[in-house]
Amino acid sequence: MRNVKGFLLSFCLLAHASIGFATEVTLAGSVSLPGDKDPRSMARIDSTLFVGMPTNGQDEIYAVDVSTPTSPFVDWSINLSNTNVEVLLAGEQYVYVGSGDTPDDFRVLDPVSRTIVASLNLFSSRAVRVMEWDSATLIHVYKNKGSGVDEFVVDVSDPLAPFVVSEADSPTNPVPPVFNWPYGHTSVGLVVSRIDTMTGAERLSYLANTSDQEVQIVRTVGPVTFPDANDDGAFRLGCMGDSNTGLGASTEKWCEKLDTLITDPSFEIRNVGCSSATAVWRPPHPIVPCGTNSYTHMKNAMNAAVDAVVVAYGTNDHFFGYTPENVLDVYLEHQATVTALGMGFYVFTTPFRFNNAALQALNDELNVLISATFTSEEIIDVHTGFTFNPDYSWDGLHFSDAGQQKRAERAAEKIAAP
Fold first, then answer.
1. Chain-wide mean pLDDT for the chain?
2. How many domains does the chain divide into?
């Protein structure tokens, strides 16, 4: 598809305007940290970045105000009495601090009072290396491999009174996360921590790196409203759905039409939809090799290294006896999967069905659930404003070429950069 895109730029259907865009990367702002040591970790709550440092005779945690990305500044700092701060983990209100071999190697920092409000001694002679959330109230703490217990689960349901739930002797050393950053012309040095936020087509990446002990804020504006989640230079969309999405019929589907509307060469599609597919899991079937259900399609999309997905099911689910609630549960599961990976998520409303009033009533119920569950930025409306003629084929179920074009235009409204 990339080879024909230049051709389509010149010969795109005159009735439909194409959307061109140039991806740009700029340094929005930066701030140097005191001392001569490199940062180790970073966490973010609202408009404040918390940067952890090794002990250097100065403070070990710095709070950087990033409310104005072009003018970040060190707002305040805290001294932990010659403690190497190795890992910071953000909660809703508190920052959790993992440090080197000290009497209190797990601490709770209150950003409001700017003080340590609780601490734990995780009895191990090794430094904390990794901390991650197991659930909303449980933090998994991994220390460097030692001769005894070096893995802990800490309950922070009451952040002022954390306690160890379980501990174990890990068989291997923990592996800290690796923060990829391909834009070497902007970020100099080793990136030790990275936090991304996405607003429309603009991504702000907060980077703690070893270039003059800096925190940098890099602005990336792409051709679409989802990020290049895997930093491979492409903005790749996975189109998941049934016969109104998948390849194989004579009518070009909305996914391929969308690829001609968003003309930036870094935008790519991966159509993993399939005829007869449902959102809800169904056993594989030999006559449907491209996948009977959305779980197979999600696996195929992930294997294609997509950065976002669109889910477009419901019609066949109701035909096979599944409820609107069943479909919504699957959508929420897929949303959780992709957002945890920093990817984009969009959901098509369920299209109107002209050939079966009872099944159409279930489609309406599902659309009510979709509207109440997902944000307006995530929902792509493909059921209002469509008519039997000219938007559907003779069967009242499958879209005509005109209907698929309209679906693509609706998708472009939400997916293309403003």
1. 87
2. 2
103 and 152 co-located in one domain: yes
Enclosing H/E stretch for 214: strand 214-221
Angle ∠(93,95,101) on CA atoms, nearest 5: 155
Q: What is the CATH number of the domain that holds 337?
A: 3.40.50.1110
Supply the pLDDT for residue 77.
94
Structural domain harbouring 249:
224-415
Q: Cis omega before residue 390 (within 30°)?
A: yes
Tell me, yes or no, whether 159 and 54 share the same domain: yes
d(CA 161, CA 2): 56
Burial environment of residue 143 by CB neighbours within 10 A (0 to 12, 13 to 18, 19 or more): buried
Separation between Cα atoms, residue 307 and residue 325, nearest integer Å: 27
Q: Do 381 and 246 sit in the same domain of this protein?
A: yes
CA gap 130, 125 in Å, rounded:
15
Please check whether residue 25 lies inside any domain of the structure: no
Q: What percent of the chain has pLDDT over 90?
A: 61
Weakest mean pLDDT among 15-29, 77-91, 213-227, 384-398:
15-29
Residue 20 located in a structural domain:
no
> What's this model's pTM, rounded to 2 decimal places?
0.76
Distance between CA atoms of residues 91 and 138, nearest Å: 11
Which residues contact residue 321 at a Cβ distance below 8 angstroms, ignoring those fewer than 6 apart?
none
Query: Do residues 351 and 317 both lie within one domain?
Result: yes
